[in-house]
Amino acid sequence: MKILQDYDLATLNTFGISARAKFLTEVGSLAELEELFTLPEFKQNKKIFLGSGSNVLFTKDFEGLVILNKLKGIKILKAGAEVGKDFVLIKAMGGEVWHNLVIFAVDRGYWGIENLSLIPGTVGAAPMQNIGAYGAELANVLENVESIEIATGNKRIFTKEECELGYRDSIFKNKLKNKYFISAITLKLSKKEKKNISYKILSDHIEKNKIQIERSKDISNAVCQIRRSKLPDPKVIGNAGSFFKNVFVEDAKIKEMLSIYPHMPYFKENGMTKIPAGWLIEQSGWKGKRIGNVGVHEKQALVIVNHGGANGAEIKNLAEQIVASVLAKFGLELIPEVNLI
Ligand code: EPU
Question: Catalytic positions (predicted)?
């Protein structure tokens, strides 16, 4: 395996931030993964695993080893009796592009991840933050996660329950942060129609464009259309999707806010109420604003963009200013969804 030194990470994160890694390597097979654990650069340095870098912000150079997950492969597992005739198990390796897994599923008519179309990132990163969009999340279909313990090289399979999935959250972002490398995931998808088009923006789009939903692919296509119309393409303008999480708020606070802002959007989820952070940021006057090389996207205030040449500190600084103004105006604290490194 090749170990590169003093490597510029600009093309390896979707913000397009130039930051240097002391060492960089990539893992393309399970044999290479085993070899990795024997290397002195691995043993002697702090390390991070990177998929497609779509949810990280490098705020400074990384004085350690960056390991790119390039493990590839998607296959249908022999369905055991336990999944029944209506379901299928699909195993995907961590370095696969997430959207390619969605295409694999919808091309075969399977249901369960079509609402998650076009989410940037790799399969290995998906359980980290329990990716979600348009009323669906990975937790609805995840069967298990295969991983390697970084300290020992031991394999471990996490059941879905053991992953402790929450809203944009999992055990891998908390208790077990940087402790496991995710090598593969298995999903349980439905062979029978299981459409989920209750998310308002999705149902409005389907109705307005008179789209017939017969296959999971029809939903996938609709989701792609919405995302392309609203979210900036990182190939054109650097960004990491939503920079912040939406905010869970107590009922009393919702009431108080509705009395001042009767048109405030809010959603009920698992018995809690969530306010879109994009709305809070927009109301605080940030939508479309630019400060030097960085700014807030003009169509979706939850997305911070690199207009070109920004460094991580500038993005972090803008994010901190947004947090401060939302806190001052609404008394609510925004929490980043993006991992700051
Ligand atoms: N809104 C505004 N102004 C904005 C943006 C949003 O007022 O600038 C309000 C609107 O009222 C809109 C509501 O927020 O009705 C919801 O907006 P949207 O459907 O665009 O979703 P979101 O809550 O802003 C979340 C995810 C996105 C995901 C969409 C669609 C988080 C942090 N973000 O955004 O995920 O694509 O829902 O399901 O939960 C990502 O994680 O990177 C990401 C893009």
Answer: 168, 242 (proton donor), 337
